[in-house]
Amino acid sequence: MTFERRHRLAFELELHRAGCEFLTGDVAAAENRFELAVGRARRASSISPAMTRLRVDLFTTLGRSDSAVEACLDYLRHAGIPWSAHPTNEEVQREYERLWRQVGSRSIEELVDLPLMTDPEARATMDVLTAVVPASRLYG
Asked: Quick count: other Cβ atoms within 10 Å of Cβ 88?
């Protein structure tokens, strides 16, 4: 068994090693390993939400909120969600209006009673968006 034939396994091992390096304080090695993994994932046309969350955490810890936000936006682009780091006022207004159309006249109680999200891709995207919130508050 070679790593070339077991691409997914090799990718997951590298991802977990990068996570371990980050958690043990070897942030330079973790960052390098994450960047290599991202390059491989791009070639395979898939970027792991778990990898993105770890990269966001790494960049946020290093005080590089711009890189954390860019990692999130890169994930979203690969997921088919083309968000801008700096949307225009018109784009923000259109999105705000779209959200209110979806909410409609439902009360907060009706929204709370909606079923939990079960789509694994949607949940993964929400996890990535949640991870980037602290960095996005610092991003200018």
From this structure: 9
Chain segment 75-99, per-residue pLDDT in tens: 999 889 999 988 999 999 999 999 9
Domain residue limits at 12: 7-85+120-138
39-79 pLDDT tens trace: 766 555 567 888 889 889 889 988 999 999 999 999 999 88
Distance CA 77, CA 103 (A): 25
- Number of domains, the chain: 1
**Rounded distance, CA 68 to CA 59, Å?**
5
Give the residue carrying structure tokens 């779209």.
Answer: 98
Residue 27 belongs to some domain of the structure: yes
